[in-house]
Amino acid sequence: MSHTAHIPSHRKPRRNASKTALRAGVAGGVLSTIAVAAAAAPAQAEPVTQTIEMPTLTSGLSTAVAASAEATQQVALDLETQAHEDAAATTAAKAAKTAKAEAVRKAEAKKKAEAAAKAKAEAALRASRSEARTTLSATSASTSVASSSSSATGSAASVISFVKAQVGDAYVSGGTGPNSWDCSGLVQAAFRSVGVDLPRVSQAQSTAGTQVSLSNLQPGDILYWGGAGSAYHVGVYVGGGQFVGAQNPSTGVVLRSLDYDPPSGAVRVL
To answer: Could you say which of 3, 31, 90, 269 has the lowest number of CB atoms within 10 Å?
Structure first.
């Protein structure tokens, strides 16, 4: 027996033919691809050095920056102009408001002054008219009294002269002269001046003489208001449709027309 008869063989087992063929084909294809690529590529790649010229932006950038600065400056100028305009408008509005208030104040002052002047003028006119009426009344009274006095004679003329001299004196209740009177006190004093003694009060004086009709009066007759014997007021008829009497505290002794306060009756003592 050979000395290697029992030693296992170290040779690899045969591969399957189909697998071997497949592997051979793949390997051949890969090698073919590598060969083609090698043939197409240059023998040795050299570094490529190329200078790329970048576009110059300095000119355009400067223009854009300048335009932006100009726009910013214009905006700032516009804002400043608007601020000035707003301030001017505010100042003008305040000035207009102040001027309007001053104009209103002056107009009101002028209106008040005109009203005051008008009131003063009207007051002066009323005073002038009142003075004219007073003068006319005084003139008429003097004329009437003088006429009555001239038509009266004796004691009657003296009584009339006495009462007309007291016109303008004050009225005081219970007054008997010489500067203040009540109605019966004046009549009593007037007749006493000619020696005729009359009762002190109106009621008694209204029956002190002969009753006469108001349509047949003579200067010097005593007029009374109220009933005979119950009269509340007396005066003296001075002629010309007028009488003198101490009327009241507001008027004092006055000369009045009979129409001013028509009497109830009259008595004659002279």
So the answer is: 3
Looking at per-residue pLDDT, the higher value among 148 and 210 belongs to 210
pLDDT of residue 84: 85
The domain that holds 205 is classified in CATH as 3.90.1720.10
Q: Amino acid identity, residue 194?
A: V
CA distances from 188 to 165, 216, 219 (A): 15, 23, 16
Bridge-based pairing state of the strands 252-257 and 180-181: unpaired
**Per-residue pLDDT at 139:** 44
Judge whether 52 lies within some domain: no
**Alpha-carbon distance 83 to 85, whole Å?**
5
Rounded Cα–Cα distance for residues 170 and 199 (Å): 22
Counting every residue written for the chain, the total comes to 270
The Cα 170–Cα 177 span in angstroms is 9
236 closest CA partner among 249, 253, 252, 213? 253
* Residue-level pLDDT at 123: 78
Statement: residue 259 has pLDDT above 90: yes
pTM of the entire predicted model: 0.47
